[in-house]
């Protein structure tokens, strides 16, 4: 759908996407990963949008990572065939997963549980189509996965060896990289992420098992990885949009952030230095990911309608449909006058969470015209 | 749509709604407000569902409050005619508001800004249909509104006196009641909320202006108000579902909470006492509203599949599609064994935020069968 609506004509709040920034973010990540060797398996959980995926990968469907079977189903409906479902599998999802495989999708699933492996081995029939498994490895104590040297890795591979859910490799996610406080720390985390999964793959091979897939991924480690020897693929998602959390750890610049929420000033409490807008937590999400960073950005960093940050103006608090803008210092004297009706753009803490509040992107390409509108889906 | 799916057959995560609890919550609030005199103007922003509204009000469309024009449009499409748009109006929404009025809706809007009043006075033509205004009063310093004695109240009324946006009264929202730490404090807040708006209405009448509508509202103050003399209507929304924030301030019991998220165990980190489920922040929302309460419930309180709370089990952390359940003490020895595949139900911190992550309610009525499915809408 093409369009030529001007920003000032838009209903607010609404989600804006700058196409040129997505293109540049994608090009930077693509060329960096290509220079290191592995393939890039885009995580589509951030954008949940066919058009954004095409902007990153080109028109031909490439390999993707999904966080829900709904994402797999949506993308398979548009010809995407090489899909990794990156969340530990629960057997109650087996029928949907097998339906995807039956429709022609090369779906891989992830698990780290001997119990789940046993259940799958008991549920799957030899005639079921192939549903290859990656064993999840814990590289940083952040969330899920088995430690690289855990004997359960080989136990799971053996349990599934003669089933349609044969193990074909390992995967890990350095989610701890979001808490890094320096580029050096991220580089070290990228090396640790690689080492964990390469070690686990080696132990699988030494036990006579397949480990042809060795998968790592997080936007920070993908951005700063220097050597991915032994790794076959990198998963990353939030780099397509970036956000204040990523800027806060030095993974992008503020000006690389491609999504923002357009809001309108609806009132003031001038003696407190507050300007109220019609973008509250429903428009921004409740994500406060910068709260634990050195620079707390509240519910988002405020820019003028052209997207230029307004020095130290943040959304300090939010209710469902109200955002409260104030100067970071709290000093009313430092608040610029933003009359009612003024439009502002707010950069989000966490692109995945903010974008999830919307069913469409209004796409800009440098100017103040909406060039087109792209849908996004949600749910499970 | 009727249904007879059992809980164990449901894909997870999914949003469950217990019809009997909604019915009881609604009956309690309805009879309390009726005993005090004012009418109850249900806030539909929590449920965003026609069926939930009917469960509260009966089949005949009653007076409602909305937080977005989208809500007004959705409900007007089902015959709701008496609608208050409860967020300070921005003139860029005028065309949509007038279209609603032209379609037969008796729409009232809210504002607290002399500038907005001037803009409306300049934009509205004498032939435009009536769009009555309530002036927003600040009763607790929480968010927006004019102080009860502010001369701008009369200034706004005079600015709009001869326009289709004539002032017809005042409204306030005691959002500060969410931070109360005792029932006595909530009772005092309810009295303060009433006094603020009754005082503002009196000053309007003394100046010869209309103040036939005197509107208050928040679920805590509505629940504990003892005397609403001078108030004509009460707005409240979250009471239909209740949540952990409301339970934490004593406005409901845990067993009154009518919504929960059904999730499935996908893995363990047993040495840490962690059980992982497929309900992360996308399923629960990022709302951490109990973090500042005496009892922090993490991302939600964990119940068994029948809805019985499991002593001191909470979702301590969440990523997009992973929730981490642990014992409140952090002690791994106190974690019950929840094998992979086990279903749990998680009660939310904030019903409005959690429900907003879904496009439907799976409705239970006492048993483990889904009786029906109700849609909910979102967006602006």
Radius of gyration of chain A over alpha carbons?
22 Å
Strand order in space, largest sheet of chain A:
2-3-4-5-6-7-8-9
Most residues in contact: chain pair:
A-B, 61 and 61 residues
What name is given to the CATH topology of the largest domain in chain A?
TIM Barrel
**Main pleated sheet of chain A:** 8 strands, parallel, barrel
Report the portion of residues of chain A in β strands.
15-25%
Q: Structural class, from secondary structure content of chain A?
A: alpha/beta
| Number of distinct helices of chain A | 11
Distance between the termini of chain A: 26 Å
Taking all residues together, what is the mean pLDDT of chain A?
Answer: 97
Query: Would you list the SSEs of chain A in sequence order as H and E?
Result: EHEHEHEHEHEHEHEHEHEEHEEEEHEE
Which oligomeric state applies?
Answer: homodimer
Which stretches of chain A are low in confidence, meaning pLDDT under 50 for 5 or more residues running? none
Can you give a write-up of this model?
Two copies of one chain form a homodimer. By secondary structure, the first copy, chain A, is of the alpha/beta class. Chain A folds into two domains: 37-240, Alanine racemase (TIM Barrel, Alpha-Beta Barrel); 258-375, D-serine dehydratase-like domain (Lyase, Ornithine Decarboxylase, Chain A, domain 1, Beta Barrel), CATH 2.40.37. Chain A is 28% helix and 25% strand. Chain A has eleven helices and 17 strands. Chain A has helices spanning 19-36, 50-57, 69-76, 94-102, 114-123, 152-160, 183-206, 219-224, 244-248, 281-284, 351-355, and strands at 14-18, 39-43, 64-66, 82-88, 106-111, 133-137, 167-172, 213-216, 233-236, 259-269, 274-277, 301-303, 309-318, 323-327, 343-347, 360-364, 370-375. In chain A, the strands form two sheets. An eight-stranded parallel beta barrel of chain A has the order 2-3-4-5-6-7-8-9, surrounded by six helices. Chain A is elongated. The two termini of chain A are 26 Å apart. At the A-B interface, α5, β10 and α10 of A face α5, β10 and α10 of B.
